[in-house]
Amino acid sequence: MPETTEIVINTSPLIALVAAWGDLKPLATLYQQVWVPLEVCQEVSRGGANQFAVAEFEQATWLKKQTQPQTISPFLLNALDLGEAAVIQLALHQKIATVCIDEAVGRRMARLSGLSLTGSVGILLKAKNQDASLSVRTAIDNMLNRNIRLSSTVINFALTQAGELD
């Protein structure tokens, strides 16, 4: 499989990765360009009740944060939330083969759109492949402590792939 150098990333993985690592810096070492649609920038910047991940997102000036909204196909808008639809639309428009989406419906629509997929756990595994000293278990524990939902199937898969399953 060819090395992925560019991705378009959705809100949930950005928040999950901040929960896992405390910042987004490892993403900069994994990809030459990480694209963020304006719609996702706005979702992250709203920050929810506790403003979690907002400061880390704003500090990540190396992200390719888009300043113009996407013209999103009605098909995507009717099937997905705005962030996921914008991620897929931006990837298609910029001819970026891979998107980072965690939600099942968004992943399904990305596949139907001919895109390759990763998610927050896939990025953790990519980081582990690049730096064996990283602990996927610790990252997942950090995510769970921040109420990031992961199924036991996903957790066991990740720990097995990382060689960290007891």
Strand content: 5-15%
How big is the Rg? 15 Å
Assign a percent range to the helix content: 40-55%
CATH architecture: 3-Layer(aba) Sandwich
H and E string: EHHEHHEHHEHEHHH
Which overall shape is indicated by the principal axes computed on the Cα atoms? globular
Tally of structural domains: 1
Content-based structural category:
alpha/beta
CATH class category label: Alpha Beta
What name goes with the CATH superfamily?
A: 5'-nuclease
Q: How many helices does DSSP assign? A: 10
Uncertain residue ranges: none
Task: Looking at this protein, list some descriptive labels.
five-stranded parallel β-sheet; Rossmann fold; 5 strands; alpha/beta
Task: Explain briefly what this protein structure is.
With 166 residues, the protein is of the alpha/beta class. The protein has helices at residues 11-21, 25-30, 38-46, 54-59, 74-79, 82-94, 104-112, 120-130, 136-145, 152-161, and strands at 6-9, 33-36, 64-65, 98-100, 116-118.
